[in-house]
Amino acid sequence: MPGFTGWLDTPAGRVARIGSTLRLRDHFGAWKARWGIGRMSYLVPPGLYAIGEPRPEDPVVVTANYKMSFDIVRQALAGRRLWLLVLETHGINVWCAAGKGTFGTDELVGRIQATRLPEVVNHRRLILPVLGAPGVAAHLVKAQTGFTVRYATARAADLPTYLDAGMVASAQMREPTFTFRERLVLIPVELVGAIPLVLAISVVLFLAAAFGTGVFTPSAGWTAVTAFFGAVAAGVVATPLLLPWLPSRSFAVKGAFAGLIWSFLLYLLLDGASWDSTTTLAAFFCIPAVSAFYALNFTGCTPFTSISGVKKEMRISIPAMAAAVAVGALSWLTDTVIKLLS
């Protein structure tokens, strides 16, 4: 059990006591999860935990059983006495689990009953993260358990200040952020997830470009693969890092702009003035579409998108991406067929 330091006897039975100091294996586990290694099994058992030597009157903080969330919360609460109620979210973080419904009303009510929480504490207050609000109907929790839900902060790091202020949160504490560092740590798992499809497409592109003139030309194949890799990197790496400076609120449009920048760089680096019109057309249509597609994945990683907003953006952007790829590919294929027949 992560951070286990012993047991605490309560009227509802023994509760595992956990420490707030993260060890090397915790940091290594988080690093692996960032790279998608064992990501879906990176979790802790749901239930009630004790931080320090909590008393019946001490606060109850609720979080998800994604181990990274669990570790961030317990680390932020170092040196305090409180209860940590961990919900079964199947290893998904609070915000994503709230959207999926696992960090939700039914799970919270069921976990209160399963842990016999009313016998452990002498108050009826629960402290939930703000990003968990979409999944929890506070009035139903109150009606079914008698516990009042209080939404605290967007970041675990602000919990100590929130508690010291008498459970009063400032507007800044409740404002979601998506800082450079927060964007940076999302890139590895997106890269790993993209690898299988990217490799498969790269093989097809290499062969198609290398044999495009009827004579095997490896340099043409590598140029096509380089252009494609750059388009993927523009969407997966450049777009999140340059997010505040890319135009539009749409992630797809931001990705398309990043891809367009890469298209111009490629044009300059590879003497694009010598390209024929069909190659130029293919590059400037396909590359931005590919980068837009991968940038669109980040709509599911940010704390300020909504399900309806994501659906709307997908309805508009995906047909546009498909059309751009179709125009570019058709232009290139037409030119290739003409050269092979001539």
Rg, rounded, reads 25 Å
Number of domains: 2
Q: Spatial order of the strands in the main sheet?
A: 1-2-3-5-4
**CATH level-1 class of the largest domain:** Alpha Beta
Distance between the termini: 70 Å
Return the structural class. Answer: alpha/beta
What is the string of SSEs from the N terminus onward?
Answer: EEHEEHEHHHEHEHHHHHHH
- State which percent range the strand residues make up: 5-15%
CATH architecture group name of the largest domain: 3-Layer(aba) Sandwich
Mean pLDDT: 90
Number of helices: 13
Q: Can you tell me the overall shape?
A: elongated
- Let me know the number of strands: 7
CATH topology of the largest domain: Rossmann fold
Q: Bin the helical content.
A: 40-55%
Low-confidence stretches: none
Largest sheet: 5 strands, mixed
Structural account:
The protein is α/β, with parallel strands linked by helices and about 350 residues long. The protein has two domains: about 170 residues, Rossmann fold (3-Layer(aba) Sandwich), CATH 3.40.50.11600; about 160 residues, no CATH class. Helix content is about 55%, strand content about 10%. It contains 13 helices and seven strands. The strands form two sheets. A five-stranded mixed beta sheet has the order 1-2-3-5-4, sandwiched between helices. It is elongated, with a radius of gyration of 25 Å. The termini are far apart.
